[in-house]
Structure prediction request, 882 residues.
Amino acid sequence: MSVWLLCALLSSLICQTEQDGRSLPIKEVEVYVEKTNTSDYGAWVLNVEWRDELKAGNNESRKVSYDMEVLHTEQMRTVHSETIHVTQGNTALHHWKWTSPIPLQCTSHSVKLRRQDQHHISEWTPLYTYKGQDLSATSEMVFPHDQVFMVGSNITFCCILKKENVPLSDSKFVNRISNRTYITNSLHFDSPSSDSTIQCNVSGSYSPGSTVFIGYPPDDQNLTCVTWSLSSVECRWEMGRDTGMRGNKRTIYTLNGRVCDFNKCVLPAVPNQVTNWTLIAKNDLGVKTLTDTADPTHRVLLRAPSELSHTAYARSVTLEWSWDVTTYTSFPMICQVKLNGSFYNKTFSGKGLSKIDLDHLQPFVNYTVNVSCGSDEHFYAWSEWSNITFTTKEDIPEAVDVWFEYFKQNTYVLWKPLNQQQSHGIITHYELTKGKRREIIDINTLCYNVTTGNERSDQNITVSAKNSAGLSPPTTIIVPGYPDNEVHISRISSHNGEWEYFNSTCGYVVEWFPTYTKKQCTVQWKKIPESEHATLNRTSQNGIFKVVEKYACNENKSVLLQRSEGYAIEQGNFKEGEKYTVSVYACNENKPVLLQRSEGYATEQEPSGTVQKLRGKQNGRNLELYWNEVPLQQQKGFIQGYKVITFLSGSETPVNTTVTKEPRVSLILDSGTYIFRVSAFTSGGYGGNATLNFHMEIEIDQMIVTTVVGCSAATLVFIVITVLCYRKRKWLKKLLYPDIPEPKLAGKWTTKGMYCTQMTEGYMKCEIQEVHSSECPATAESTHGLDLISSNSTVFPAQHFYQNISESPADVSYYPPPLLCAQKLTSIIENPSYNMTIPELDNVAQISELTLEMQDSYLPAPNFVQKNFVVKDSACYKPQSA
Prediction:
């Protein structure tokens, strides 16, 4: 009994010891590397397996943890630690993997572990070691080598020395992890490479290296399987991203288990049955799988027609070919054709099609024909192109385009050479018929003189072209006998301009030639058919004429058919800056009739020359500049005007800029030396400058003349104002200073006077008359109111009279005939306060005193003229007294 108690006690103590951790439950620990095809060149995964013998009670599971540590054995340096959690039953076999940052061959790696649960932690197990190559290396080694890595990987290399403390001459291996092992820092590879090499340079011995491969896994796409012959299927696919793998690292392809080359794999076909095709692309970095499914009869891709032959005619060809595949002879197919690179306007179909006809071809033209066919019943795709080249036969040429010109009193017939499409073969010669005479003309001659002596009548000329197929249709033109040069020549402008529509039975002809450089047979022309009556606009950029409308004649009315843009004369026929003469002819009964002639430029440029003979003429301060025009051939456009820039000598700042349309300009300038620059301009720009230096001199006599003329003008204005004021003096006096009423004399008055009349032979007749009047006569021609009391007359020489008058002018009064009031004669009235005496004259009586009887005592103040004599010019004389 006591023995059993002792055994139970011992068993209890053992269990308690195990639970306290003094006894390890971890058994059968094994450490090894994961084997792969390349693990001998660098193993990276370390595997640890162990068995935990601690049983859970009552068959229950419980959670336990294990602490794992990995060490570099020689240095006993921990490189990795981790705690893993597992659920454990009564017995458990556990496995743990760890991926090393360096190949495991670089140095020995040791692993230890311990167990822990909710209340207890076991002791660490002993070290379990995977031995590295550094313990047994007999030569320098580098790991990893001959391995494949993904682009973007970070790799650490190690170098193992065969002896300790051997110096390294390579700076890449900078870290020492054991007595004989050195490692690099992590190296990054960001692009594909098939032979990246890392050297381990050891002084004094062979330097081994490591070659690694950097790339991508397969990325192939678009697997497509078709049949060529209905007996086999050919599958093709496209490579995606380049893997960068070459040689024995390349991608391996298998299709439905059969190894294939890239992009081509052939398998037997099963007609009328849906088939699945699976492609597997594999390399050391990954696998890509592609599939395709179809009925082979719906994937027919025919071979290209072979052995093409032809039978060519002038305007058609027959093509024949054969098929390399016998099953094609009864296979329904459709074929398409390319003619000189362009698709023919129809397709062809039939079973086993091997012959087609192509028409509407041009004679004597080289053609390249391509033929491609496909399944007509279940069309999938066109076959590859087959090709053949041939030349159609010759045909008779088209009609020749014929025109005429007058040059230096001769008449020439011209025609345009036929191009390849018009000649329909090789032109051998031309035939010209004039009346009954036919002439053979060489192919290099395109102009013929048809003038015969003094012949000036209309001529009927016919021209035809000849090749191996025959003569072209004849072209007939009636050449007028006399050139019509009477038409007005207008200017072609750059805006709207049209020729008027004239009746024409055979259309219009537009003719043009260089105005200043016309040579024999250089006229160019373009014919506009009568069915295309056009309104032609003149433009300066896109040619001289532009067709914008087309009309047709319907019931004698012009009906607009089309409005479009097209050139009657192509721009390429004109040189920029060249002046052309353009003529428009209408055709009436096949005879050209000149309608209009114009001159102009297709594109105007700036003048290439300058104005000529620039000179000046001074007139005072006025300078007249004038010059000759730019030479015609150098104008390059219509001259629109001239620009004159004036500079003072020595200065580049203009003092005046003038634009004029005439070849002259007038300038007002001060004295000094001036530089004048004159340039002509067109719509295309300004030409070069003509320069003139001119010295302005202002002369003194000119200044005097100018001053006198100015003063004279001012004087003249003053005189004119004075005369106007004098003539309007009454109006001015009335406006500015009205008259004061004068007293009226009452009663009778008496006056005496001497009146003289010029006579012949130098004598004068003088009379002394006495006049009585009480009031002014009623009329100017009447003498009523004048009483002639006495009249004494004396005749004496006039010289003697004037002499005495001049000696004492104050004492003599001379009167005209006594019509004082009516005829507004000058009167001289004696002042009543004085006595007027006349000097004694030979044979002249003493003049009596003039007395005036006044009834009123009021006398106005007298007006004196030459010693108290008053002269009055009035319609009604009113005497005044002091």
About this structure: The radius of gyration is 68 Å.
